[in-house]
Amino acid sequence: MEYPGAKGDGFMTGSSTLEPYRVTETTLALQYDFSIEHETVAYDQNGVFRSPKSAKDLLNDRCLQAGVLLEGRIASAKVRHGIQHKVPLLVDPYTDILAFPTHSPTSPHNTWLFLKHIVDLMKTDDPKQVKVLFRNYETLTINCSPRTAIKQYERAAKLFYMDVYQQRK
User: Fold this and answer.
1) Is residue 10 in a domain?
2) Tens digit of pLDDT for each residue in 91-124?
3) For a disulfide at 38, which of 6, 33, 122, 150, Cβ 3.0-4.6 Å?
4) Are 63 and 56 in contact (CB under 8 A)?
């Protein structure tokens, strides 16, 4: 399905590496950067940024701002929700930041997607890829089957509902 205003296949142009990147409410996705000088590419509502830190370190930094360790969040989700692999990460419940991996978090092919920005996960001509449509109409094609992406999205939405939304009632 095509969406009016969607900006083709790709992402915002321009990038900035002047300031150290931090995961915020505007982060859309984190991917491994296969270049020599950077570790992570961060897709954000404000542009594309590169960081010398790994996605895990960027996520852990934000978890620490919320007063917990990334490992603690993952352990909690495993126990509370029975998820053993590719566990969604409730980064910061106060600002609704929840990310989920498309592959094992240790895989260079993994992309961390941020739940609240996703509008649709669309099939492509390649059965091993999915096109992610974000709320700002940007798209990002990633190496992940649509089935896996949808399963991970559903896990993340369930975790968000149970651990954040229900707690606010």
Assistant:
1) no
2) 999 999 999 999 999 999 999 999 999 999 999 9
3) 33
4) no
